[in-house]
Automatic annotation (TrEMBL):
This is Type II toxin-antitoxin system RelE/ParE family toxin. The keyword Manganese does not apply. Pfam families: ParE_toxin. Keywords: Toxin-antitoxin system. The lineage of its organism: Bacteria, Pseudomonadati, Pseudomonadota, Gammaproteobacteria, Pseudomonadales. It comes from the Bacteria. Belongs to the RelE toxin family. It comes from Pseudomonas graminis. Gene3D superfamilies: RelE-like (3.30.2310.20). InterPro entries: RelE/ParE_toxin, RelE/ParE_toxin_dom_sf, TA_system_RelE-like_toxin.
Length: 92
């Protein structure tokens, strides 16, 4: 089974997501959202082809359900490398 690795940028994106939702809805809601997003990313361990093809060669994009985020990732050396977690409304 594949492992999941977050790049520094993806980790920073998750921290920014948490800060945003904590300010808007409180830290408990922010924690639940980030945990849910991490759970969706974990599904790539089993289903690495789940995401849609990206414009970048070798990169796929997981559209996160219930949230306006997309996570570009690539599979290499038995690892799913999550490159970013981007708000598809603002970060494109």
């Amino acid at each position: 089974m594949l492992t999941i690795a977050l790049t520094d940028k993806a980790q920073s994106d998750l921290e920014g997501m948490h800060e945003y939702y904590a300010a808007m809805c409180g830290s408990e809601v922010a924690n639940r959202i980030v945990i849910d997003v991490l759970g969706q990313l974990e599904s790539l361990r089993t289903f690495s082809g789940l995401g849609r093809p990206s414009q970048s060669p070798g990169v796929r994009e997981l559209v996160l359900s219930r949230y306006p985020y997309v996570a570009p990732y690539r599979v290499k050396d038995h690892q799913v490398e999550v490159l970013r977690v981007l708000n598809h409304r603002m970060d494109r």
